[in-house]
Amino acid sequence: MNLYAIFAIYVLFWVISAFVMLPFGIRTPDETGEVLIRGQADSAPSNFRPGMVALRATLMSAVLFGLYYANYVQGWVTIDMLPGFHAGR
Questions:
Q1: Considering Cα of 67, then 69, then 72, then 73, what sign does the dihedral take?
Q2: Up-side HSE of residue 31: CA atoms within 13 Å toward CB?
Q3: 20: helix, strand or coil
Q4: CA atoms 58, 60, 65, 66: torsion sign
Q5: pLDDT tens-digit map of 11-37
Q6: Would you say 40 and 29 are in contact if contact means Cβ atoms under 8 Å apart?
């Protein structure tokens, strides 16, 4: 696997991880006791911290990519092991 493929796959893991991490830790103004501004949606977050989302996504994607790469190198699970998929056909 070349460096461009490693980078591209890691970025994909990071983006997916970021979307998974977005809803964690978010509180609405109703939960925090803040007053809504006119025109503000009830579900709008009052404590969104993009830095924390990026940190969590980076940690999660590093772990997931590490598992992916270890499987790539070690061959723990291959396409031939999955039911219904056969690389020879």
A1: negative
A2: 9
A3: helix
A4: positive
A5: 999 999 999 999 999 999 989 999 998
A6: yes
Q: Helices 50-74 and 3-21, interaxial angle, to 10°?
A: 130
DSSP code at position 49: -
pTM over 0.70: yes
CA 31 to chain centre: 26
Q: Quick check: helix, strand or coil at residue 11?
A: helix
Q: How many CB atoms lie within 10 A of CB 36?
A: 13
**Residues shown for the chain:** 89
Q: For residue 42, what are its two tokens?
A: 């009830």
